[in-house]
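Retry 2 of 3 after timeout on previous attempt. Resubmitting structure tokens to design endpoint.
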């Protein structure tokens, strides 16, 4: 799972709803921020926005102060920097296990895991919470912050970049310091590397070599003309102004696009991704996919359906759902999530948007399609079975939010309906043959379940902001 490119990671197993009166209601796993009772009085009013890490939340209040709760190992405990967070904060960003607050004066405050192993909780070297080594560089002038699993990259107003956190995750950019001292306009990330897009259309990369940090093999192709960058957990894909695509990183998760090179030489308008696959949407409405077949890389079964008319693509960890201009949906990828025959007739027309849960295990993902009539259609695993709330989501739904295992539907009347698994049972997850499924990644699955980011628990946006009253669902 990947962070959204604005530097925030989605919560794994809890929701936090922001109400119209500025108060917050949280539910879900208490180990991930579902229990906010310890800070209830601070969340009773004045909250303007909510941010998240995989296991904690940070509420930004109208007075510029920040309130945090959730697991201390995911940044839920900000007591060490409380005085610095009492005022002046304008935005909050997160890495896998830490937060970074950007203040109105351009300075940055960080808390959470650092890059050293903690005897009480093994972070696997994941960090970002300790920025003391670059304190003087981020005391002013920072305009935006980006993150990988274990590091942050601050973009300054002068176009320079400052990084900190685990070197294995891009926290050390010393090798390219001269190249990112000016001219950077945007930063992108995989799980363990960064790619800086410069004003001249060139790209500079650093971080773990097997996760996109080493772009030497395609250096001449990304020295100019790049307009946007996309990523899987370990690969970058650069979209050039001429509509061509250049990829680099792990060949197992989309780094090798040679099989579809001729199709990617022109005409690409946007790129979407699962954990290990890319799907390129072309200007003619066709789709080209490449990467691991286990994560949706093989779209041959639906090739004729996605040869034209596709307007947007949505993804989970291991499956895609293509929304066509006629309001129909085409899915492919893992059997659970990528296979939607049970709801095919409901997806044949009228769909306006699609949402998904995103977990480390592709076999546990689900989709929810919002139709123009305000009804919902769901399929997949966790969150895919909405039968218990079917009558409540048959009309009036205006927006959908998700975490790793559940959905929450915001209705036009301000009520919320939630379904799925809000309490993660890691021992039960071990019943899945995960070792066989993820063995090629070289990860220890038990550890990955306990420390989900090791399998890509980076999420697309985790700011669950529901500005409405919350009647019981």
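Retry 2 succeeded. Sequence:
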């Amino acid at each position: 799972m990947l962070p959204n490119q604005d530097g925030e990671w989605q919560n794994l197993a809890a929701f936090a709803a922001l109400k119209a009166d500025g108060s917050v209601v949280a539910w879900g796993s208490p180990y991930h921020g579902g229990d906010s009772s310890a800070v209830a009085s601070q969340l009773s009013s004045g909250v303007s926005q909510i941010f998240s890490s995989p296991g904690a939340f940070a509420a930004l209040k109208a007075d510029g102060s920040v309130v945090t709760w959730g697991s201390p190992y995911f940044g839920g405990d900000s007591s060490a920097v409380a005085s610095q967070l009492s005022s002046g904060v304008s935005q909050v960003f997160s890495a896998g296990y830490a937060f970074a607050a950007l203040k109105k004066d351009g300075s940055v405050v960080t808390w959470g895991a650092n890059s050293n192993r903690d005897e009480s909780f093994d972070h696997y070297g994941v960090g970002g919470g300790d920025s003391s080594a670059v304190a003087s560089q981020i005391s002013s002038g920072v305009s935006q912050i980006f993150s990988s699993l274990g590091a942050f990259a601050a973009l300054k107003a002068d176009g320079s970049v400052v990084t900190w956190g685990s070197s294995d995750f891009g926290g050390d950019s010393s090798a390219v310091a001269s190249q990112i001292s000016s001219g950077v306009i945007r930063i992108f990330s995989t799980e363990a590397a960064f790619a800086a897009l410069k004003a001249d259309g060139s790209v500079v990369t650093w971080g773990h070599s097997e996760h996109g940090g080493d772009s030497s093999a395609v250096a001449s192709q990304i020295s100019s003309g790049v307009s946007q960058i996309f990523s899987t957990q370990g690969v970058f894909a650069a979209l050039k102004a001429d509509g061509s695509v250049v990829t680099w990183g792990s060949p197992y998760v989309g780094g090798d696009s040679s099989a579809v090179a001729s199709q990617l030489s022109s005409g690409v308008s946007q790129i979407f991704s699962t954990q290990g696959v890319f799907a390129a949407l072309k200007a003619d409405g066709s789709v080209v996919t490449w990467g691991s077949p286990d994560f949706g890389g093989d779209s041959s079964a639906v090739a004729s359906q996605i040869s034209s008319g596709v307007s947007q693509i949505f993804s989970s960890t291991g499956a895609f759902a293509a929304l066509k201009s006629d309001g129909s949906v085409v899915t492919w990828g893992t059997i659970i999530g990528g296979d939607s025959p049970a709801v095919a007739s409901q997806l044949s027309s009228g769909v306006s948007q699609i949402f998904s849960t995103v977990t480390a295990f592709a076999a546990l993902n689900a989709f929810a399609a919002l139709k123009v009539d305000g009804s919902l259609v769901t399929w997949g695993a966790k969150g895919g079975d909405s039968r218990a709330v079917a009558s409540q989501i048959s009309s009036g739904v205006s927006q959908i939010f998700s975490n790793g295992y559940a959905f929450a539907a915001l209705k036009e009347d301000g009520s919320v309906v939630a379904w799925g698994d809000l309490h993660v049972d890691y021992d039960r997850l071990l019943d899945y043959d995960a070792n066989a499924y993820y063995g090629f990644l070289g990860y220890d699955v038990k550890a990955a379940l306990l420390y989900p980011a090791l399998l890509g628990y980076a999420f697309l946006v985790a700011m669950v902001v529901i500005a409405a009253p919350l009647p019981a669902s």
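Attempt log closed. The chain has four helices and 29 strands.
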